[in-house]
Amino acid sequence: MASRVIPVEVFDLVIFGATGDLARRKILPGLYLRWLAGQILPEARVIGAARAELSDAEFRASVAAAIAEYVPPARQDAAALAGFLDRLSYVAIDATGDKGWAQLRAVVRPDVVQAFYFSVAPTLFGAIAGRLTAHGIAGPEARIVVEKPFGRDLASARALNAALAQHFAESQIYRIDHYLGKETVQNLMAVRFANILFEPLWNSQYVDHVQITVAETVGVEGRGVYYDKAGAMRDMVQNHIMQLLCLIAMEPPYHFDPDAVRDEKLKVIRALDPVRPEDIVRGQYLAGGGKGGYLEDADNRNSRTESYIALKLHISNWRWKGTPFYLRTGKRLRARESEIAITFREPPHSIFDDHSGWRENVLVIRLQPDEGMNLKVMIKEPGPGGMRLVQVPLDMSFAEALGEALDDVPDAYERLIMDVIRGNQTLFMRGDEVEAAWAWTDPVIGGWEARGEKPQPYEPGTSGPEDALMLMHRDNRRWREIRS
């Protein structure tokens, strides 16, 4: 199976914050890989913009170093790299002043697709947006890409939306969430809406519960000051996990169209019930394995910020009423693993005398590592001695199914940046969607802050706090094991 590469239109992409960590690790290497794949035409250009005083040659040298560091050796090609670097130029710019804007206007072409990537702090979004329009750089069809965090509560998200809306229409704003660019995440929609096998069963009549897990082995060292102001709820649940929940729970859109998809996601968020205090478990990792604990990493001995959170949610609509959704995410856990598990109900009646080996049917969608899908079904255990049941997987690993073609599948940033150039907003959050997510999140955070609750300590290399296990046990269910 070979993947098709369809070139995008000629474009000028300006990356604000081009010397920063995100640009070096993800954006610029991703653009190089799309150039290597033949998706970017020779007439396209990438313009770096940052405060540092660099020549074009110095910027190109720094990009070459980033590609050497972050692109796998097998995909590094000297001739392709030279061609990509030729597309690059640089402008030293002051995001909040006048320096550099005239020079930027002189190099950005008005007759090609214009895209402006705000790889900067959210506090600079409004200033950059205003100067792009005030200096006549951004045309009426220009697109801007803004990174998370998009606010830290409903009020700040509304303020950011309003600041951008002063200068750009909603159809021009691309709020990026790299989780939505993952191949398996997009396959959620294909699995649901392209297979009659699943859609009739995708409701509370047949689904017992849904688990969404995003587990990480790393702590917050190196970004502790930022993380301590956010926590797992703001950093992961409000955006990444919320998007996964929406794709699992949404109704079929009338068409695979950006606004049609986002309309249905918005309905899910608005149908979320408030979370009861007893349905929330928060934790902080302790020191262990030669590494400090959360309090040391955050440099705040009195921190009440969670590095782990587990929640039980309900969606009040006809499709999902009565089916619980269990979400969990945390740092310094047993393994790096992201998956969605849809557990189906037991058959209403068993015809087999020996029911001891019975297990529910489970559809597991693995996001990382080993992207793929796994459907667990019951069969007869081989051999004589009666009808003994055993659960086996019908497994589809992307690596096995796609073979060498998997090497050509773009990562999340590659895909999403190309979608910006195409003008496809399907995998980007809309302003009202962001605000609805914060409107649901704020009372949850406000509740535990008002109660003065401290996160529970947990040992690194485990599955999290003990109370998270009880969150499931009291419902006679169990978390799926986080595999080490």
UniProtKB/TrEMBL annotation:
In which residues is substrate bound?
A: 178, 182, 216, 235, 331
Q: Where is each Glucose-6-phosphate dehydrogenase NAD-binding domain found?
A: 14-187
Q: Which InterPro entries match?
A: G6P_DH, G6P_DH_AS, G6P_DH_C, G6P_DH_NAD-bd, NAD(P)-bd_dom_sf
For the keyword Protein biosynthesis, the answer is no
Keywords assigned by UniProt, alphabetized: Carbohydrate metabolism, Glucose metabolism, NADP, Oxidoreductase
The UniProt catalytic activity note for this protein reads: D-glucose 6-phosphate + NADP(+) = 6-phospho-D-glucono-1,5-lactone + NADPH + H(+)
Supply the EC number(s).
1.1.1.49
Enzyme class, UniProt record, top EC level: oxidoreductase
The entry's function note states:
Catalyzes the oxidation of glucose 6-phosphate to 6-phosphogluconolactone.
Annotated protein name in UniProt: Glucose-6-phosphate 1-dehydrogenase
- Give the species this sequence originates from: Pseudogemmobacter humi
Species classification? Bacteria, Pseudomonadati, Pseudomonadota, Alphaproteobacteria, Rhodobacterales
UniProt lists the gene as zwf
